[in-house]
């Protein structure tokens, strides 16, 4: 009984909630393309500002906060093959170069333009005895989660004639005469390491607009937004100046489009495309914008009541207008008659349910009393049994789901096992027990 009423109540709740209405709306069209995350019809009165939401936290561009330090080069030196290397010099793509040992200052050189030309080679001005060892050129791309490493072994000799370079099968080996410069070559000209703008172009947001009947692949581009901050506006001239996306869009992941002073000609299908090529994010949000008749103009009745007649004019409030405006932003997804119908249905079902519940409680209460009297006198036996059977039917129906659950639990512990065994015990015996217990408690 409780279960049943619970289910009915939930159905009612679902019917009333906007989420249900939303999913019952244009779900069919949304399923056609996997990249469409939402599609809805929105209506605003002419002259007002429309806001078409388009937000995704995954599109937040965080790299600029790091001052473009997402790429790092560092040169390490390890004297003995097994030992941990020590950091000699490193540099972020923002341009900061750090030399770790004071004695290496001005002795070890990295090209300041390394992240532009891809030449990460390390120059040692004058080689000393202590410079021998394995040098590693390490490139980290934090944003792309890439790491590349290149090793060069440096040997120092006293005889300039022995100076040479060769490949030992794993790495380059350089034999350099004492006091001579040594150039440890490390070049990587892949755009990933050198081109900053290409990386930012990985995150792109478009707003498109198409007139009804035009397929989305032939839509007109309204706006292009790049994570680098670059923006391009296209669109028809009458619309271009009235559309805007907030300046900090990539910082917040909020690319909602505002259209000021709506005109009838603005109607159409607007779509927001979010692309994060690196992360594989490709989402489209579609809005069918409808511009309705202009709403009640508040300035006309409000202007005489500006200062003096403030309390004398209780009529239309500007707050009322703004509230209804805000409301239209939230739910205008399904034709109104639809939701109206669901509401009506909900009310009817709710009253019906209440009535049924009331009826059942009344019937049960009266019958129990009758059953008790009958069994106490041990006269109307057959009548009493009828009632008991009914009760049992109700009781078992309630317990049925729990029993099957217990069996599925695979007897993980003994308590469950016992409970399951109890549940399996012959029904008639249980029936009698239940009845007796129930009556003892109820008729006291
Ligand atoms: C890399 O830069 C060094 C100077 O730092 C220069 O001597 C060398 O020729 C450059 N290598 C390449 C391949 O451009
Ligand atoms: C009422 O306010 C508007 C601006 O809100 C102003 O232009 C107008 O002069 C005011 N009228 C009076 C009667 O104060």
TrEMBL record:
**SUPFAM superfamilies, sorted:** Immunoglobulin (SSF48726)
Q: Which GO terms describe its biological process?
A: cell adhesion; establishment of glial blood-brain barrier
Q: Which GO terms describe its cellular component?
A: bicellular tight junction; cell surface; plasma membrane
Keywords, ordered alphabetically? Cell adhesion, Cell junction, Cell membrane, Disulfide bond, Glycoprotein, Immunoglobulin domain, Membrane, Repeat, Signal, Tight junction, Transmembrane, Transmembrane helix
Q: Give the superkingdom in one word.
A: Eukaryota
Q: Where is this region: Disordered?
A: 294-321
Question: Which residue numbers delimit the Ig-like domain?
Answer: 18-157, 160-292
Asked whether the keyword Membrane is assigned, the reply is: yes
Q: Which residues cross the membrane?
A: 345-365
Protein's UniProt name: Matrix remodeling-associated protein 8
């Amino acid at each position: 009984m409780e279960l049943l009423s619970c289910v009915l109540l939930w159905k009612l709740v679902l019917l009333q909630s906007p989420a249900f209405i939303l999913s019952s709306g244009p779900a069919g069209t949304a399923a056609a393309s996997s990249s469409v995350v939402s599609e809805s019809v929105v209506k605003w009165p002419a002259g007002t500002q429309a806001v078409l939401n388009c937000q995704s936290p995954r599109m937040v561009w965080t790299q600029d906060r790091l001052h473009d330090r997402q790429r790092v080069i560092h040169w390490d030196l390890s004297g003995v093959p097994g030992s941990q290397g020590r950091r000699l010099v490193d540099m972020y793509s923002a341009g900061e170069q750090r030399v770790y040992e004071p004695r290496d200052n001005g002795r070890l050189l990295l090209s300041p333009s390394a992240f532009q030309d891809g030449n990460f080679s390390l120059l040692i001005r004058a080689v000393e005895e202590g410079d021998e060892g394995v040098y590693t050129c390490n490139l980290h791309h934090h944003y792309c989660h890439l790491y590349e490493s290149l090793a060069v072994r440096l040997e120092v000799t006293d005889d300039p004639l022995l100076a040479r370079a060769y490949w030992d099968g794993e790495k380059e080996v350089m034999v350099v005469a004492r006091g001579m410069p040594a150039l440890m070559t490390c070049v990587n000209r892949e755009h990933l390491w050198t081109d900053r703008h290409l990386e930012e172009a990985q995150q792109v947001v478009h707003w498109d607009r198409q007139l009804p009947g035009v397929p989305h692949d032939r839509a007109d581009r309204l706006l292009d937004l790049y994570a680098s901050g670059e923006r391009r506006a296209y669109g028809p001239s009458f619309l271009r100046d009235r559309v805007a996306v907030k300046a900090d869009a990539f910082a917040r992941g909020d690319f909602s489009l505002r259209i000021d002073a709506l005109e009838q000609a603005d109607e159409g299908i607007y779509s927001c495309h979010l692309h994060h090529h690196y992360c594989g994010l490709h989402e489209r949000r579609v809005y069918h914008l409808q511009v309705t008749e202009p709403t009640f103009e508040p300035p006309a009745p409000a202007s005489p009541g500006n200062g003096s007649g403030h309390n004398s004019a209780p009529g239309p409030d500007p707050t009322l207008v703004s509230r209804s405006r805000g409301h239209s932003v939230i739910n205008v997804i399904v034709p109104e008659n639809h939701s109206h119908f669901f509401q009506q249905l909900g009310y009817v079902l709710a009253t019906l349910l209440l009535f049924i519940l009331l009826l059942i409680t009344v019937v049960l209460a009266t019958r129990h009393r009758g059953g008790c009297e009958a069994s106490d006198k041990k006269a109307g036996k057959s009548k009493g049994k009828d009632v008991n059977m009914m009760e049992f039917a109700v009781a078992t129906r309630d317990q049925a789901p729990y029993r099957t659950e217990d069996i599925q639990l695979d007897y993980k512990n003994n308590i469950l096992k016992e409970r399951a065994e109890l549940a399996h015990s012959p029904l008639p015996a249980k029936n009698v027990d239940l009845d007796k217990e129930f009556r003892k408690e109820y008729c006291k």
